[in-house]
Amino acid sequence: MYAFTYERPATQADALKLAQAGGKLLAGGQTLLASMKLRLAAPEQLVDLAGIKELQGIRREAGTLTIGAMTRHCDVAESAEVRADIPALAELASHIGDKQVRAMGTLGGSVANNDPAADYPAALMALGATVHTSKRQIKADDFFQGLFATALEDGELITAIGFPIPKRAAYVKFAQPASRFALIGVFVAQGDGGVRVAVTGGGNGVFRHAGMEAALGQQFSPDAVAGVKTDEAQMSGDLHGSAAYRAHLVGVMTQRAVAQALA
To answer: Which residue intervals define the domain FAD-binding PCMH-type in the entry (predicted)?
Structure first.
């Protein structure tokens, strides 16, 4: 490691002051601390958000489940409100990483990092969620902008995520055994506005699958998407799976997610 200063503000206002002065926000640390150990990141000041109570918690408001940015994965997984209103989201959270990761990692940290194989971005995209920040509200479709890139500006802080409650939803992923990130993960949601299908793990970031959405809009069943193809040219390939394999997995995971949503 190397020398850096550590701050643990108690309020959102204090955290914003530190962030606007150049401090690096620490929301859980699963990615940032590992990057620092490898010298891939070298912030001079860390601003730990763990002590800010106003960034934590889960509440239901007029058909929307709002979850604070510093709510931990384990709390989302175990929340009675989430399990009642969006059980697919609780199930997703319960399979992020391992028990230690779920005890420290946070919703806001995962969303801000936007790892191309992370689980939460798929939930935000499929559910049509809204990212609440210290400055504004950003629709999920506009928030995620590619590999580790988001619409967040310097000094801008995610405060909460608002999830519209769907009629039915499910998330299924084919996990890479060592990291437990999604080799391919598919979140399917059916709401008042129609069907949305979001894919993670397949390329430079989470994306919506227009072909799957169109087919499921006509008939919400696994058979409806059995013949829908995914362009392997849009998929990434590595030692864990080729682009063609990932493209095939998108179809398989989508059918499983639809079946699970109907169960």
So the answer is: 1-168
Please count the residues of the chain: 263
All residues at 6 or more sequence positions from 209 whose CB lies less than 8 Å from its CB, including other chains: 186, 197, 198, 199, 228, 230, 250, 254
pLDDT surpasses 90 at 203? no
Alpha-carbon distance of 141 to 124, in angstroms, equals 9
Q: Spell out the domains of the chain, with CATH numbers in brackets.
A: 5-164 (3.30.465.10), 168-262 (3.30.390.50)
Sign of CA dihedral 28, 31, 35, 41: negative
pLDDT tens, position by position, 154-201:
999 999 999 999 999 999 999 988 888 999 999 999 999 999 999 999
The token pair at 61 is 């408001």
d(CA 118, CA 109) in angstroms, rounded, equals 11
Contact (Cβ atoms closer than 8 angstroms) between residue 30 and residue 52? no
Q: Average of pLDDT values for 208-227?
A: 97
pLDDT over 80 at 2, yes or no: no
Question: Tokens representing 154?
Answer: 């310097």
Question: Is the Cα dihedral 256, 259, 261, 263 positive or negative?
Answer: negative
pTM beyond cutoff 0.85: yes
Q: In what order do the strands lie in the sheet with 194-200?
A: 168-175, 182-191, 194-200, 207-208
**Separation in Å, CA 259 to CA 64, 121, 128, 209:** 24, 21, 21, 17
Classify residue 222 by its DSSP letter.
G
Rounded to whole angstroms, what are the CA distances from 107 to 12, 235, 242, 245? 16, 26, 29, 29
